[in-house]
From TrEMBL:
Cofactor requirements of the protein: Zn(2+)
Full protein name: Peptidase M14 domain-containing protein
Domain Peptidase M14: start-end pairs: 23-292
Cross-referenced SMART domains: Zn_pept
Length: 296
């Protein structure tokens, strides 16, 4: 009797079944094998937009760093008096680092711009280094008083704005150049143009070393909001609030110009020329954020 299935056909069928099982097992294993663990740690950092808002007399960049995207825009400016007040620039850098690593610090209705170094030629006079510097770059030798305060045209930039401007300004018991006209200096024009483009709700200038926070005015008295933010910053930081700077006459200051166009501005003076005083200023900044974002 002939077998129903030949031995050869049986072997062929068996081989096919075996191959089928093997393929099935291989594919099944591929499917159920756990995905390889990938250690993807995405650092949570704030988005920052870097803008070059102008060039100094010697061609150095005037940088602005913008964080957040709320409708209320707060501006912080360090170093308008250059290397003479280098600690105000380091404070601005410290603030930028803090914003970068603490994105939730900025309430949703707020945008913050930091212009860390408004007079980079003056910083270069003292630090001798391009771009961002650290405390370790600051020379320890004593320099003649006032070194690095002016821009490369020897102009005091905080006398070059349009508020009672005149060609000669005063700094303590000295006569200083205020430029050939209001806004004759590229560094002053860069701040003017940025302010006119972005209409900040208020502007905070960091200086040293009067250990105080000052209001601002030009011809029409102090804006009510200027008084509010001066008092808020002062209470939180411990810098003495002073409504009117009267140690000597100041004309052409940027804060006065801002007052003249209805933008509140305060001047925060650190207590020495060497200290950054981050904790005090962080408390002051927090108070400003509470003022402009009361729901937070
Ligand atoms: Zn100053």
């Amino acid at each position: 009797m002939k077998p129903l299935v030949s031995m050869r056909a049986l072997i062929a069928t068996g081989t096919l079944v075996a191959i089928g099982i093997l393929v099935f097992v291989l594919f099944s294993v591929r499917e159920v094998a756990p995905a390889k663990k990938t250690e993807l740690t995405i650092p949570i950092v704030a988005q920052v937009i870097h803008k070059v808002i102008g060039k100094s007399v010697e061609g150095r960049n005037l940088d602005a760093y913008v964080y957040g995207n709320g409708p209320t825009h707060l501006m912080f400016v360090g170093g308008i008096h250059g290397g003479y007040e280098w600690n105000s620039v380091l404070l601005a850098y410290k603030f930028m680092d803090y914003l970068k690593t603490n994105p939730s610090f900025i309430p949703s209705n707020i945008t913050i711009t930091v212009i860390p170094s408004a007079n980079p030629d003056g910083v270069y006079d003292v630090i001798g280094k391009e771009g961002r510097f650290a405390l370790s770059d600051v020379p320890t030798v004593a320099l003649p008083n006032g070194t690095g305060r002016f821009n490369a045209h020897n102009v005091d930039l905080n006398r070059n704005f349009e508020c009672k401007w005149k060609p000669k300004g005063t700094w303590k018991n000295k006569i200083v150049s205020a430029g050939t006209s209001a806004f004759s200096e590229p560094e002053a024009r860069a701040i003017r143009d940025f302010v006119q483009t972005y209409s900040p709700a208020s502007v905070i200038f960091w200086h040293s070393q009067a250990n105080a926070v000052y209001a601002s005015e030009c011809e029409n008295g102090i804006l009510p909001k200027t008084l509010d933010i001066m008092n808020a910053y002062s209470r939180a930081s411990g810098y003495t609030a002073i409504k009117k700077f009267d140690s000597y006459e100041v004309a052409g200051d940027v804060e006065g110009w801002l007052a003249s166009i209805n933008i509140p501005a305060i001047t925060v003076e650190l207590s020495t020329h060497e200290t950054v005083e981050w904790d005090r200023n962080l408390a002051g900044i927090n108070a400003l954020l509470k003022y402009y974002s009361p729901q937070n």
